DNA sequence: TTACTTGCAAATCGTTTGCGATATA
DNA sequence: TATATCGCAAACGATTTGCAAGTAA
């Protein structure tokens, strides 16, 4: 892996974030410093960096991939309203795998635990505006049956 | 929601499966009984049925959506080699949410726990052939650093 | 008869890839 | 100098959508 200007800056910007951006979010950020960079280059570098174990592609739900400058595995929360993903400071729970192995004929190798909820910003807006965000829609739906 | 022939048969076939098919897998199955059905109709019906709470779109990792004829929420395992998804008979663990809530400023509403591993079929083939499936590649990678 | 649903094809979205040009080691 | 990496645009796979025709209630 050679060091290119694009790759270095991409990595710097990813590491400066506590959020877990999508390729496109990162593209918009990096573009401020490298106006001529292409989205393809962003994707290619994210691929190379995560294959090399320098960054991590987080296995989040949703249609877009998300990337993490931190490689140690840890759990995440996803906001049901805005899609934002953050870290959850909960230690890994290896006992979950044993629990699963007991009830399945799969060879269990690990797990993905993703919490869902509402981020502070959305919670505030949601209360203020009675919006029809996924969260409120879910409540409505539960009410009807 | 009106009852159409396509929708009824789609639901029948989904409920007959213990696996959690993708839209395209279901399309191929339903096509045996309705040769003229279109993939668009399959997608539209899966959407309508899961919005109505009749079926469930499972929030699985991967590029394709997967659907479940059972609406009660439960945990899943995903085979890292073939992508197959099955149920895991582990009861819901609500205490996980409390654990997460304690360490985060999100309003935690739930979680998704997906186990990863190898299905019995793949485990067998993998041992027999020293294949370079994701599982073995992962081991190689760990070895190198 | 009304409006939900269909089949078809085109459009969209996120991501990957082929190419000839550029830049790093 | 050799080749990894780039920017661009086209290709791709999964999903969604517009439309005119068909069908359930």
Task: Please summarize what this structure is.
Two copies of one chain form a homodimer. Chain A has helices at about 5-15, 25-30, 40-50, 95-105, 120-130, 135-145, and strands at about 55-60, 65-70, 75-80, 85-90, 105-120. Chain A has about 140 residues and is of the alpha+beta class.
Task: Please give a structural write-up.
The structure is a homodimer of 145-residue chains. By secondary structure, chain A is of the alpha+beta class. Chain A is 43% helix and 19% strand. Chain A has helices at residues 5-15, 23-30, 39-51, 95-103, 120-129, 134-144, and strands at residues 56-58, 66-68, 75-79, 85-88, 107-118. In chain A, the strands form 2 sheets. Chain A has a 3-stranded mixed beta sheet. In chain A, α1 (5-15) crosses α2 (23-30), α1 packs across α3 (39-51) and α2 crosses α3. Chain A is flat, with a radius of gyration of 18 Å. Chain A binds chain B through residues 53, 59-61, 75, 77, 79-80, 86, 88-90, 93, 96-97, 99-100, 103-120, 123, 135, 141, 145, and chain B through 53, 59-61, 75, 77, 79-80, 86, 88-90, 96-97, 99-100, 103-120, 123, 135, 141, 145. β5 (107-118) of chain A pairs antiparallel with β5 of chain B. Chain A binds a DNA duplex (25 and 25 nucleotides) through residues 1-7, 22-24, 36-41, 43-45, 47-48, 63-65.
């Amino acid at each position: 892996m050679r060091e290119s200007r694009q790759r270095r800056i991409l990595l710097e910007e990813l590491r400066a974030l506590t959020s877990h951006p999508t390729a496109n979010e990162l593209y918009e950020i990096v573009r401020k410093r490298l106006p001529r960079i292409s989205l393809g280059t962003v994707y290619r570098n994210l691929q190379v960096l995560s294959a090399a174990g320098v960054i991590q592609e987080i296995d989040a739900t949703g249609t877009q991939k998300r990337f993490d400058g931190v490689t140690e595995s840890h759990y995440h929360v996803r906001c049901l309203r805005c899609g934002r993903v953050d870290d959850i400071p909960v230690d890994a729970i290896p006992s979950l795998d044993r629990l699963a192995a007991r009830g399945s004929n799969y060879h269990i190798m690990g797990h993905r635990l993703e919490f869902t909820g509402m981020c502070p910003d959305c919670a505030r807006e949601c209360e203020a505006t009675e919006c029809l965000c996924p969260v409120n829609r879910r409540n409505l739906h539960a009410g009807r049956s």
